[in-house]
Description:
The structure holds two protein chains of two kinds.
Chain A: E1 4-7, E2 10-13, E3 18-25, E4 31-37, E5 44-50, E6 53-57, E7 64-70, E8 73-79, E9 87-94, E10 104-105, E11 109-113
Chain B: E1 4-6, E2 11-14, E3 19-25, E4 30-38, E5 45-51, E6 54-58, E7 61-66, E8 71-76, E9 85-93, E10 101-102, E11 106-111
Parallel strand pairs in B: 2-11
Antiparallel strand pairs in B: 1-3, 3-8, 4-5, 4-9, 6-7, 7-8, 9-10, 9-11
Amino acid sequence: ETGVTQTPRHLVMGMTNKKSLKCEQHLGHNAMYWYKQSAKKPLELMFVYNFKEQTENNSVPSRFSPECPNSSHLFLHLHTLQPEDSALYLCASSQASGAPGELFFGEGSRLTVL
Amino acid sequence: QKEVEQDPGPLSVPEGAIVSLNCTYSNSAFQYFMWYRQYSRKGPELLMYTYSSGNKEDGRFTAQVDKSSKYISLFIGDSQPSDSATYLCAMRSQTGANNLFFGTGTRLTVIP
């Protein structure tokens, strides 16, 4: 496996379900991110972890709960979501010594909340 | 006012055309400017980045930044069907290493 891998690729859940998105990076990077991508909207930064420590939390509702057990893995735990949370959730990683603004994205997890 | 404005398109051009994609921004602190390309059902990938004002060329792609006008452009020369994708501009300040501001993306289709 190379790059940034996200699972599952597609997820359908009810408003009362609990599910998790998983991200794994094989690039040796020290920062990992969760972004939300909705139609006709800019990518929204949700969470940032640097060396496993959360450094950004952009006023994300508590129904989204991130977890970063080590520098290679990132989870997004989901519970009691709303239909407006349906979107593509992208994980990314970066290295401080890399090109400025260079994020390596996974292919995303397409979430549908019924 | 949004930090970054980008026309979502869609934009359709014939093969071989020169394509111009643009973004405007409001924050004068932005110093690094990026263009990402996102193919259907894939994550975005960095295409080019520039620092401050000026031009940068990479093959058929040219990025331009005009900080006085708060305006950036990406030109694609001799466009190919494989260039069909959504192009997202992104930018950040000198100190905002982890905080990129993205445009909405412009969907481009190059017709053979």
